[in-house]
Amino acid sequence: MRELPAKNATQYSDASRRLGFKELRTIVQTLSGKASTDRAETGRTFTGVGVSPGRIVGSILLMPQPVREPAAGERLVEGTTPEEASATLRVAAKAVQTSLTARSVGASGAGREVLEATALMANDPMLVKAAVKLITNGSSPERAIWDAAASVAEMLHNLGGYMAERATDVLDVRGRIVAELRGVPAPGIPYSDTPFILVGEDLAPADTATLDPAKVLALVTSSGGPQSHTAIIARALGLPAVVAAVGVEGLTDGTIVFVDGAAGTILVDPGADEIDLAKAWATTTAALAVFDGTGRLKDGHLVPLLSNVGGAKDAVKAAAAGAQGVGLLRTEFCFLERDTEPTIAEQVDAYRGVFDAFPGKKVVVRTLDAGADKPLPFLTDASEPNPALGVRGYRTDFTSPGVLERQLQAIAQAANGTEAQVWVMAPMISTAEEAEHFAGLCAAAGLTTPGVMVEVPSAALTAASILEHVDFVSLGTNDLTQYAMAADRQLGPLAALNTPWQPAVLQLIRLTVAGSRDEGNDKPVGVCGEAAADPALAVVLVGLGVSTLSMTARALSAVAAVLASVTLPEAQQLAALALKSYSATDARRIVREKLPILNTLGL
C-alpha cells in the first residue's frame, strides 16, 4: 500500500475542495509518482455499508485508540520519588490544558464550550491535589490521576445540576492526562489544521461534540451499522460516511483515499476517475442545496417532506431548509442528563420553540422514548438484562405512571397560542389496547390528533386494529428493522441484516399501509426513521403507499430531486421489485439500477 507524506496529503485533501479536475489530477500523479492508469496495481478497496452519500478524495487521520485504564494498584517506578512523579503529573496536566485552550480558539458554538470547560478542568487544583496525595502514598502518576478523577467525578455527579454535567469533563481530562503521561495520542477526534477523512472503529456520542464538519470531510468506521451513532451524526451533518468497513483501521495517517458514501466503498490511491467523481459531487451538492418546499413526484403526486428535529435550534434550521413540517420531534432533549423529571413549565418552553418555527404546519411530537440506549435515572431500570426489549418508550407508563400524562399536559399547553398543527405519537406501541389507552390520555390532555409509532412487528401486523383508536401511524424504521431481524443496530457484524432494504422489513411496511386502508380507514402512514433519508428507498416507500417522509433537514433536497424523477406507477413498480427480491442487497441494487439519477447526482 502506498502512503504519502502527511504534509502533502493534508495539502491535497484541502485542495480537493478547491481545485479543478486538471489540477487535482496533476497533484495525485505527482504525489504517487505514477499515472492514474497504474491504480489497479496499487489500489486497494475496502467495502462497508454506505450510510450517507457523497464522493470525497482526501487524506485520512485515524481515531486514537481508547486510553487503557492503568493496572489496579500500579506503583511508582523504582527510583522515582513522589516529588518527581508529582512534577511530571503537573507538567502533563498543564500540557493538556494548553492544547485544549489552543483548540478552543478555532472552534465555535457547543464545540468551543466543551473544549473551554475541559481545558479548565485539566489543571483544576482540586483534581491535581487529589492525584498528588495518591502519588505521595505510592501510586504511579497514571493510576493516581485515574483514581482521583473517578472520585471527583462522583462528587460532582452527586451535586447534581450543572456540576453533575462537569463529571464528564473530568473523565475526559483523565484520559487525556494519562495519554500525555504515556506519550500516546489523546483520545477523541484528532486535531488538524487542514481537512481530513476521519477513520476509526466507531465514534462515541461524546466525540461528536468537537467534530468540526469544516475539517472532517468524511467518516469511515470499521464497526457500527446503518443506525449507529456515527451513521446518524454523518447524515445530520451531511458528511459522506461508510460504516462496518472491516480493515480500515489498518490504514496509516496521511494515506490518500476515495470515499463513496452511497456505494459504501473506500479506495486507496485514487486515480483521475475518482477525482472526477469527487469534483462532480462538489458541484452536485451546490445544486442540491435548495429544496423548494414541495415534495412531489414527476406526475404531480404530492409527498410532503418533513424533518426530524431534536429541539428549537433544529426546528429553525429545518424550516430554513424548506421542510414542510416536523415528522418527528424527539422530546428526549428535555429529559436526558437529568436526575429529576423536568417541570411542566420547563417542557412548555422547550416545545413552544419548535411549534413557533412551523406556523400553520404539522409538528408531530413523539413522547418520551426513554430506555435502552437512552436511560434516565428517575424513570428506567439500568439493571434490566435486555433493555432494548424492556421498559422503554410508552412502556415506562407501566412502571412510572404520571410522567407521560404530565408530558402530554405540557405539549397541550405549549400548543395553545401557537399556529402549529400539533400531532402526538407514542413510541414502542405493541397492541391495539395500548394504542387505545394512549389515545385516551391524549384526549384527557386536550390533544386531538393522537398517533403511534410502528417500531414493533406486532404493531405492523395489527395496524388495522391499532388505527381504529388513533388517527395516524409513523414507521420508525430503525427499531422496526432491529426487531424484525433480531439484529442489534449498533453491531457492525450484523450491518447486513440491519438495513430497511430487507424484504421482510418492506413487507411489514406494506402491511402497515394495508392496515391503514382496511375497512375504509385511509389514515396517514408516515416514515420518520432513517430510511426516509435514503433517496432510493424513499421512492420504494412512496411506492408502498407511505404518505409522508421525515428526515434530517440535510436530506430534503436530495430526496426531493429523486422523487421528482419518477411517477407514482413507476415508484409502485420499483416497490414491487424490492418486495420480491432475494435479499436486501438485491433489492437495493435492482432499485438503484432503475434510478440512473442516483449515479448522476452521486447519491
From TrEMBL:
The EC code for this enzyme is 2.7.3.9
Q: Which family does it belong to?
A: Belongs to the PEP-utilizing enzyme family.
Please provide the record's keywords in A-Z order: Cytoplasm, Kinase, Magnesium, Metal-binding, Phosphotransferase system, Sugar transport, Transferase, Transport
Q: What class of enzyme is it?
A: transferase
- Which compartments is it annotated to reside in? Cytoplasm
**Main localization of the protein?**
cytoplasm
Q: What does this protein do?
A: General (non sugar-specific) component of the phosphoenolpyruvate-dependent sugar phosphotransferase system (sugar PTS). This major carbohydrate active-transport system catalyzes the phosphorylation of incoming sugar substrates concomitantly with their translocation across the cell membrane. Enzyme I transfers the phosphoryl group from phosphoenolpyruvate (PEP) to the phosphoryl carrier protein (HPr).
Ranges for the PEP-utilising enzyme mobile domain?
A: 196-264
Q: What is this protein called?
A: Phosphoenolpyruvate-protein phosphotransferase
Q: Which organism is it from?
A: Cryobacterium levicorallinum
